[in-house]
Amino acid sequence: MNDFLINFFGNYLAWIFGVILFFFLISKNKKRFFVGAEALIAAILSRFIFTEVIRLFYNRPRPFELTGIEPVIPHEIGYSFPSGHAAFFFALAVTIYFYDRRWGIIFFTGAVLMGAARVFAGVHWTTDILGGAVLGVMASLLVHRVFLKIHKKSG
What we know:
By secondary structure, this protein is mainly alpha-helical. It has 6 helices and no strands.
């Protein structure tokens, strides 16, 4: 994988998905809005709660710290596990997939490419990505279950 592709998938794809999520959230279509809101809540839970709690107890060095290789994507040191990017974008992908398979597959594909690029960039180990993906899936399932209960009570 060349540096351009690593940068694109490892850095910039997140912004593209952010813009797509923004359009879900400002949609006049109520279903699309609620999909975006549920996905964002799951992503925030996985990235800023689950991931950070683990990092309170575990500080894993990043690959570039141990290999001495300059990372393709500049990054601060430490706290490699779990990947916050993987946690966030797998949570989005799973939640969106529940409601719209086409968009869900697009987000899944992007999350996998993003994770691979971050491994190739030297900022994550493969297990960091897998750990983040598991957290994202767990957060998505939890939030989806809560949303379904709320929907049943209100409907």
